[in-house]
Amino acid sequence: MAQQDIAIGAANQGNGDTLFDAFTKVQANFDELYGDDAGDVNSVNGQTGTVVLDSDDVSEGTTNLYNATHTGDVTGATALTIADDVIDYAKLGAEFTTTDAITTDLDFSGHQVFTKTMLADTTFTFSNANIGMVKDFILEGNYTPTFPSGTKTVSGTYSTTAANLIQIVAVASGDYWMSISQSQ
User: Fold this and answer.
1) Contacts of 131 (CB under 8 A, 6+ apart)
2) If 175 and its partner were Cys, which of 48, 126, 165, 171 is the partner (CB 3.0–4.6 Å)?
3) What is the pLDDT of residues 7-61, one digit of tens each?
4) Is the same domain home to 123 and 42?
5) Residues 69 and 135 in one domain
6) Beta pairing partners, 151
7) Alpha carbon 175 to chain centroid distance?
8) Cα(182)–Cα(184) distance, integer angstroms
9) What is the pTM of this model?
10) Domain shared by 28 and 78, yes or no
11) 47 and 57 share a domain?
């Protein structure tokens, strides 16, 4: 049913709907709202502003957009997916696109590339590392670096006379593999 408008007429002219007709339309409008789609109105939580949409609630003209693929948008009812090839470098977070000159902690959630020139023997820590993360560390200085226990060197050795590119892979909680190389 289409929304039923109440004819209010001109002020104090008596040419609008009668009180009975007006409230009949009000009741019909409420009946439709509360009876539609198994409770769309009940899907709105006034305290948090959360809105739950059913598949017939999201449309543009005659096209249902509920499970459509949109560039960069999330789609799906329960298993959300992102369309292929829509995430580009500009949309990646800082943990994948920035460099940080550190003191001793490599915060895996903060940056992709870390740099440090040691001025003394230095013990490094890793924080916020999740399985599969790979970080780059450019380290130099005529001192000895110490990495967290559980860090395994799979190739290369630290050079005290050149800049070192150290790649660190988080394999499991507290289990890191790193390779060390210098420019040729």
Assistant:
1) 170, 171, 172, 173
2) 171
3) 777 777 778 888 888 888 888 877 777 666 555 555 544 445 455 555 555 555 5
4) no
5) no
6) 176
7) 26
8) 6
9) 0.58
10) no
11) no
Using CA atoms, how far apart are residues 80 and 54, in angstroms rounded to an integer?
A: 15
How many residues would you count in the chain? 184
For 144, the domain range is 90-182
Q: For the chain, count helices (H), then strands (E).
A: 2, 16
Residues 34 and 104 in one domain: no
> Are the C-beta atoms of residues 133 and 170 closer than 8 Å to each other?
yes
**Domains in the chain, number:** 3
Q: Are 99 and 40 within one domain?
A: no
- Dihedral sign from CA coordinates of 52, 54, 55, 56: negative
CA–CA gap between residue 122 and residue 139 (Å, rounded):
11
CA separation for the pair 179, 184 (Å, rounded): 15
C-alpha 132/C-alpha 176 separation (Å) is: 10
Contacts of residue 84, defined as CB under 8 A and 6 or more positions apart, other chains included, come to: none
End-to-end Cα separation, the chain, in angstroms: 76
